[in-house]
Amino acid sequence: MGANDERAPRRVALAASGDAAGRGAGGASSASTIAFSVLLAASALAIIGTLHFVAYVVPTEASMGVVQKIFYFHAPAGYAMYLGATACFIGSAGYLARGTQWWDSLAKAGAQVAVAMGLIVLITGPLWAAKAWGVYWTWDPRLTTSLLSVLIYIAYVVLRAFTGDSEAERKFAAALGVLGAANLPIIHYSVKMWGGNHPTVITGKGGGLGHPDMKLALGFGFLSFTLLSLALLWSRLRVDLASARLAELEQEALEVGIGED
After folding, report:
1. Rounded CA gap, 91 and 107, in Å?
2. Confidence tier at 172 by pLDDT (50, 70, 90)
3. What is the pTM of this model?
4. Which terminal CB of the chain, N or C, has fewer other CB atoms within 10 Å?
């Protein structure tokens, strides 16, 4: 009997076990897909509704004009960056403690969301500053610490994309994810500790939101970016878990001889 004939029963057994596992997980997978689709649709509707409300309902601020409407996206994007960074911290800490794939994938997804939302903050902020301060950028404490935080998560994403996937590299990235979270409280309290030009609009200092529609628009903005960040986080988590599982199956297939010439 040839080598290929000996491997044939093992291939059939592997395929049969895979089919059984697929049937068992089919219901949970279907429910997860439906829930993700609902979340994605809700985030899309919330964003479209917020854009319409900000553009056509919210009054134009007297001193800054239409540029002030950037605020309804700038502040929520900063909050969404915190959500991604928190997910990265939780995933990194979980991986250091448990060492499982799910925690590592959560950390990667959180870092990617933090980078995406952080870039929105760094783009919208200077557009607002150009009107408010006359310059696009100053080394204000909050701006500087925000930039540092985004750079940390960019470093995390680059590290995971262009290095290996060994346990040592994962632990190093996890340590970076934990370290990156230490900068978040500094961003939040930087204005109180070191002053600076950055306004605290929500609390009423530096302008405030005088009209009820302005407060409502800000609430819509926070809702939209919360749903969007959760959808992105879930999406990247699913993709990374699927990629990891595919790599495991490829390795198992090679071990039993499937795919060899």
Report:
1. 4
2. very high
3. 0.82
4. C
